[in-house]
Amino acid sequence: MAGLALVVVACPVAASPGEDAMFARLRGLDRRVAIVADRLLIANATLCRRTEPAFGMVLHAIDQYPLKARPGARAAFGFGAPVAVEAVVPGAAADLVGVRADDGVVAIAGLPVAGGAKAVSTGARDAVLDRLAGMPVGAEVAVTLLRDGTAREVRIVPVAACAVRVELSMERGAEAVADDATILVGSDLVERIDEDGLAVVLAHELAHVVLNHRARLAAAGVRRGLGGEFGRSRRLMRATEDEADRLSIYLLVNAGHDAALAPAFWRAAGAGLEGVIRSRTHGAAAARARLLSDEAALLGAMPERPIRPALLDRRDAALR
């Protein structure tokens, strides 16, 4: 991916009378997503075909915010530089060298960071994410930060992670979706579930990426939207949802979670979300809990970590 792992990114927000509360909410949600995603992406790096360095920073840029909201964003986040650190994952590579929230990112490997567009744009942030993604894993990366008007250089040693960008979406509501290398998780969903539930949701979406589902569905001629909820398209999409559930068990266990976490989620909190996130292509919460319990029962014969289940051997197989 051109960007994360981890560096989880923030999406633009609209100005409102309660700007302080809005920006505090955004920072808190991004931080929660980053912490859960970081753990999954790093632990399962060997299962992903593409990896990149994980720094453990949530980055955003002043350009992402509407012009009317920028004074409030500057007041809330500082933005001593056009691109800044919104939050840091505890214990991650950036945290270990003292990177803090609201540090401005001035340069990477000696090359200055640009920004300052008048139009709302993610260009400045994405350029930084792309540069970080191109850095070597396991070697020091010099990052120049601006804090309280003073520049300082830190040397971050990133670790390998799945090359997947995880983004909080303020427009997605209670949805979570994945494409070839991006996971979008709705802000409403993040607020409605705890960290364990968020881990279950993100593991399921990461499984879609690892199993190459979007490309395989496209190759099979599966239709999206309403057309995907009927006939052959519905059957194949349901098969990929079940497959993603099954793989999610292994992704969670590789990340140190209990194998019972996913089935427990769908028996409790997940069941309460059924009317929000279920469609004709997803199983009912109870059915998903049973499938996940059956898959978790197979773990006794797979003591090594990270586990590489046989499911991965079929990730290029045509869907029929």
TrEMBL record:
Cofactor(s) required for function per UniProt: Zn(2+)
GO molecular function, one term: metalloendopeptidase activity
This protein's name: Peptidase M48 domain-containing protein
GO BP annotations, alphabetical order: proteolysis
Assigned keywords, A-Z: Hydrolase, Metal-binding, Metalloprotease, Protease, Zinc
Species this protein is from: Sphingomonas prati
Domain Peptidase M48: 180-219
One matching Pfam family: Peptidase_M48
Family: Belongs to the peptidase M48 family.
Co-factor binding comment: Binds 1 zinc ion per subunit.
